[in-house]
Design brief:
Blueprint lengths: L1 E4 L8 H10 L5 E7 L6 H7 L9 E5 L4 H13 L4 E6 L4 H4 L11 H14 L3 E6 L8 H9 L7 E3 L14 H10 L4 E4 L15 H7 L5 E4 L1 H5 L10 H18 L3 H15 L7 H9 L3 H14 L3
Parallel strand pairs: 1-2, 1-8, 2-3, 3-4, 4-5, 5-6, 6-7, 7-8
Helix pairs in contact: 1-10, 3-5, 10-11, 12-13
Bound molecules: flavin mononucleotide (FMN).
The site of flavin mononucleotide has 21 residues, from strand 2 and helix 9.
Length: about 300
C-alpha cells in the first residue's frame, strides 16, 4: 500500500512536512496546501522552495479556474524542478467555491472541460487531480468520470463526498468503485482513514477500506496523521511525538514573526493532535489559553507529563 500526506491548508506547511518526514515518514508523496495566487505570495513560494523540501517527494497543489493562472503557477513549480502539479477540485470552503474554484468548479462542467483541455494541452508538467464526486447530487459523478477519463492525468485522487457534505457523514465508497470500473488512470482513495487495523468491520480502518475496495493500492491520509502522527509507522511513543512537536514549534518560532502567529499555528495543530492523548480535555484548554510561547511550553510540558499517549 502506498500512502500520501493530504494537503491541509495552514497545517501541512513545509515546516510540518519536514518534521513529519524526519520523525515518522512512511508516505510516498507530500501534497502542499493549495497555491492560489498567480504571483505566488511569500508563504506560497517558501512552501515549495526546493531547499525547504529536501529529501521529500513533494507535489505542489494549485487552486485555479483560469488556465493562465494554473499554467503560470505550474511554470514556477517547473522552474523549481517539480515534475508534477496537482489540481484542487475538492476544497469546500465558501470563499473558494463562491468563485467557482476548488469543489465549486465542479458546478460548471463545461467551463471545467475547457480549462482541462487547455491545461493538459499547454502544460509542461504532469498533472494529477484531487476531486470530490460532485456538488449537490450523486448523479453528477457519472459525467465527471466521463470527463476525467479523457485526460492523461498522472493520477486521480478521489474524496468520495459531495461539496454540500463538507466532511460530515460517511464517504460514498461505491463511487470510488465506479471509478475503478471505468477509468484507466491510477486512482488514489482519500477520506476518513485513521487506523491500520485490519479486521474489516470498523469504518475508517484500512481493514474496512480493503474489504470494500480490494484493488485499492494508494491512500491519501489527512486528519488521521494529524490526530496520531505515528499511525502509519506504528511509532506511538511519547518521546517521538514530543520531538516531532518541538521541531514544529521551533520551526515556527524561526519562520513566523511574533508569538501570536506561532501560537495560532500550534493551537490549530492541537485541535487534531489532542486525540493522541488520553483524558486530555482540560490540558487542551490550557494550551488554548496560552498567551505567549513560554505559557504555551508550560501547558505542553504538563500534557506530556501527565497524560498517556
Ligand atoms: C484544515 C484542513 C485544510 C485542508 N486544506 C486542503 C487543501 O489545501 N487542499 C486540498 O486539496 N484539500 C484540503 N483539505 C482536505 C484534505 O486534503 C482531505 O481531502 C480531507 O481532510 C479528507 O481526508 P482525511 O479524512 O484523511 O482527513 C483540507 C482539510 C482540512 C481538515
Amino acid at each position: 500500500m502506498k500512502y500520501y500526506l493530504a494537503p491541509m491548508e495552514g497545517i501541512t506547511t513545509y515546516n510540518f512536512r519536514r518534521a513529519y518526514h524526519k520523525y515518522y515518514g512512511g508516505v510516498e508523496k507530500y501534497f502542499t496546501p493549495f497555491i492560489g495566487n498567480r504571483k505566488l505570495n511569500s508563504r506560497e513560494r517558501n512552501d515549495i522552495l526546493p531547499e525547504h523540501n529536501e529529501g521529500m517527494n513533494v507535489v505542489p497543489q494549485i487552486l485555479a479556474n483560469r488556465p493562465e493562472d494554473f499554467l503560470s503557477i505550474a511554470d514556477v513549480a517547473a522552474s523549481y524542478g517539480y515534475p508534477t502539479v496537482n489540481l484542487n477540485l475538492g476544497c469546500p470552503s465558501g470563499t473558494v467555491t463562491a468563485r467557482k474554484r476548488g469543489a465549486g468548479f465542479l458546478s460548471v462542467p463545461e467551463e471545467l472541460e475547457r480549462f482541462l483541455d487547455e491545461i493538459f494541452d499547454k502544460g509542461r508538467l504532469r498533472i494529477s487531480v484531487k476531486t470530490r464526486i460532485g456538488v449537490e447530487d450523486m448523479e453528477e459523478w457519472g459525467r465527471l468520470l466521463e470527463l476525467f477519463g479523457r485526460y492523461p492525468m498522472e493520477e486521480l485522487i478521489i474524496h468520495p463526498r459531495l461539496l454540500r457534505e463538507g466532511y460530515g457523514g460517511r464517504v460514498h465508497i461505491e463511487t470510488f468503485e465506479a471509478a475503478v470500473g471505468c477509468l484507466r488512470i491510477p486512482l488514489c482513495y482519500n477520506g476518513d482513514i485513521i487506523s491500520l487495523d485490519g479486521d474489516g468491520t470498523e469504518y475508517g480502518t484500512m481493514g474496512w477500506l480493503i474489504s470494500r475496495l480490494p484493488d485499492v493500492d494508494t491512500v491519501m491520509v489527512g486528519r488521521g496523521i494529524l490526530q496520531r502522527p505515528g499511525f502509519l509507522t506504528g511509532d506511538h511513543s511519547a518521546d517521538t511525538l514530543r520531538a516531532f512537536h518541538d521541531e514544529i514549534l521551533e520551526g515556527y518560532i524561526q519562520i513566523m514573526s511574533g508569538d501570536t502567529n506561532t501560537l495560532y499555528k500550534m493551537k490549530e495543530l492541537w485541535t487534531f493532535m489532542i486525540q493522541s492523548f488520553e483524558n486530555s480535555e482540560r490540558y487542551l484548554k490550557k494550551i488554548r489559553k496560552a498567551g505567549s510561547v513560554s505559557e504555551y511550553r508550560i501547558a505542553v510540558d504538563s500534557i506530556f507529563r501527565e497524560c498517556n499517549v
